[in-house]
């Protein structure tokens, strides 16, 4: 049986400052090597101070993943030499003397399957290596320490995944979860990085390191399954090793680093005292946590009568569920949900497109009301929405400028239907004998009114005229 376990590094991007100093947590928009200080580059004599908000946010992730929170947390130095690590060690957590990392023994349900969480730890991110040019044979490597010391949460699962598809579903659930908690923006470049441990039957375990996209980790795991199975079939031993994902060639490649487990010489970090996590503090955090995605979905289905799929799609997308919360009233909730999930999500499904939307909650609410009050048809509603997202114009401006208002005036609608009856004598005769064919006439009215006639009223008038 194939066994897959994950280690996910998730940046706490919503923090103001780094894990142990006052440098900015948002290192992305700052000129290289200017977001640094003696603490995060480890100058002698500098002392780290633990970021309280980082501990709180990591605790919230642990709670949301059903983990136990220990009474005390402590930090360790993980020693290794690499150019992106200015101090020569990474401050992380390590359960050397019992559980002192921020979470342990949690679980997440995905499609009825339980994925157990072994451990969650709070640690600092190293800097970034930037390779000059794209070639593998590049001679120049640049180092940017702006990221060094920013806060990461590492989530370690048990090897409970049976296939790469489950991995992708889990990662999507996890990304939605941290976004919903307001602790991380998982769609920022590098905000979530994944290591995958994988072994097929009769094979040694292989670790795939540091894959930056969920699609790529799924591909890398598929590749590894095929590679390992083909070796096993030919009785060639699968080496226990670390491999990396070559994005360009779409294959995993044995890493140049030594194969044996490195000796990290974990040492207790004596510059940071052991921190007690008070139970009442944990309870306060729990109470402050936003409604979970699962609870949100239940509320949408129960309170507003949304179909479960609609509740599912809406609750798991923070951007759109926030928009829903601000836009809906008790009377238009279902219509607002409908507009967001069927039309708006189609226009803007990526982060970039969402950011470009010139839409406010007011737009969506006005649109839903106009549809519910028969001021415009659903069809015209789609056109109005397209215009709103592009221009940000108000509902009333759009209705008048695009002439989308319903043909609600009964006498003008009757006149149009009379005209159609004259033009379509054959169809009218047929509809009198076979009521199922009436849709043809309704369609003609819709075309003539450019979709602005209310379908139900139109049908009522046609049926009355047919039976008279
Ligand atoms: Zn710093």
Query: For the CA atoms, what is the radius of gyration?
Result: 29 Å
Q: List segments where confidence is low: pLDDT < 50 over at least 5 consecutive residues.
A: none
Q: Which whole number gives the mean pLDDT?
A: 90
Number of domains: 3
Count of discrete alpha- or pi-helical segments spanning 4 or more residues: 16
Q: Give helix % range.
A: 40-55%
The percentage of residues in β strands lies in 15-25%
Strand order of the largest sheet: 5-6-9-1-10-11-12-13
Number of strands: 15
Distance N to C terminus: 72 Å
Heteromolecules bound: zinc ion
Structural class: alpha+beta
Globally, the shape reads elongated
* Main beta-sheet strand count, sense and barrel state: 8 strands, mixed
Task: Please tell me about this protein's structure.
This protein starts with a strand and ends with a helix. The chain has helices at residues 52-64, 164-181, 214-233, 279-288, 293-304, 308-315, 318-327, 333-347, 351-356, 361-372, 378-391, 395-401, 410-423, 425-433, 438-448, 455-467, and strands at 3-11, 72-73, 76-79, 89-92, 103-110, 113-124, 128-131, 141-144, 151-157, 192-199, 206-211, 242-246, 251-254, 267-268, 275-276. The strands form 4 sheets. The protein has an 8-stranded mixed beta sheet. It has a 3-stranded antiparallel beta sheet with strand order 4-3-14, with no helix packed on it. A two-stranded antiparallel sheet has the order 2-15. The chain contains 16 helices and 15 strands. Helix 10 (361-372) runs antiparallel to helix 11 and helix 13 (410-423) packs across helix 15. The protein folds into 3 domains: 3-281, no CATH class; 291-401, no CATH class; 410-467, Arc Repressor Mutant, subunit A (Orthogonal Bundle). A hairpin with a 2-residue loop joins strand 5 and strand 6. It is an alpha+beta fold and 468 residues long. Bound molecules: zinc ion (ZN). Zinc ion binds next to loops.
């Amino acid at each position: 049986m194939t066994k897959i376990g994950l280690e996910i590094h998730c940046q706490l991007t919503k923090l103001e400052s780094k894990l142990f100093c006052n440098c900015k947590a948002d290192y992305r928009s700052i000129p290289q090597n200017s977001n640094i200080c003696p603490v995060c580059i480890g100058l002698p004599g500098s002392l780290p101070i633990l970021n309280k908000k980082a501990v709180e946010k990591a605790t919230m992730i642990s709670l949301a993943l059903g983990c136990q929170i220990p009474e005390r947390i402590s930090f360790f130095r993980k020693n290794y030499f690499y150019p992106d690590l200015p101090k020569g060690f990474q401050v992380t957590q390590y359960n050397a003397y019992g559980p002192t990392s921020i979470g342990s023994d949690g679980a997440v349900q995905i499609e009825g399957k339980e994925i157990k969480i072994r451990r969650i730890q709070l640690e600092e991110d190293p800097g970034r290596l930037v390779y000059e040019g794209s070639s593998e044979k590049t001679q120049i490597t640049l180092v940017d320490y702006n990221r060094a010391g920013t806060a990461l949460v590492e989530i370690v699962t048990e090897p409970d995944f049976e296939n790469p598809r489950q991995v992708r579903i889990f990662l999507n659930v996890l990304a939605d979860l941290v976004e919903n908690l307001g602790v991380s923006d998982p769609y920022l470049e590098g905000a979530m990085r994944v290591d995958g441990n994988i072994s097929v039957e009769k094979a040694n375990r292989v670790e795939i390191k540091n894959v930056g996209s969920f699609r790529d980790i799924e591909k890398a795991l598929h590749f590894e399954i095929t590679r390992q199975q083909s070796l096993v079939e030919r009785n060639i031993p699968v080496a226990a090793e670390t491999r990396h994902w070559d994005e360009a060639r779409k294959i995993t490649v044995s890493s140049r680093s030594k194969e044996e487990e490195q000796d990290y010489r974990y040492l207790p970090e004596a510059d940071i005292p052991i921190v007690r996590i008070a139970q009442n503090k944990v309870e306060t955090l729990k109470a402050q946590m936003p409604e979970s995605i699962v609870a949100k979905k239940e509320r949408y289905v129960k309170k507003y009568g949304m179909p479960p799929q609609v509740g599912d799609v809406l609750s798991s997308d923070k951007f759109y569920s926030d928009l829903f919360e601000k836009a809906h009233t008790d009377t238009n909730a279902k219509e607002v949900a409908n507009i967001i999930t069927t039309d708006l999500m189609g226009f803007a499904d990526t982060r970039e497109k969402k950011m470009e939307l010139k839409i406010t909650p007011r737009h969506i609410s006005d649109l839903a009301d106009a549809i519910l009050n028969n001021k415009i048809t659903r069809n015209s509603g789609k056109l109005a929405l397209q215009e709103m997202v592009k221009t940000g114009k108000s509902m009333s401006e759009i209705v008048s400028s695009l002439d989308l208002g319903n043909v609600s005036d009964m006498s003008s609608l009757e006149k149009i239907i009379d005209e159609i009856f004259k033009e379509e004598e054959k169809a009218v005769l047929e509809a009198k004998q076979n009521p199922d064919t009436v849709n043809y006439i309704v369609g003609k009215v819709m075309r003539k009114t450019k979709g602005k006639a209310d379908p139900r009223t139109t049908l009522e008038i046609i049926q009355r005229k047919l039976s008279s």
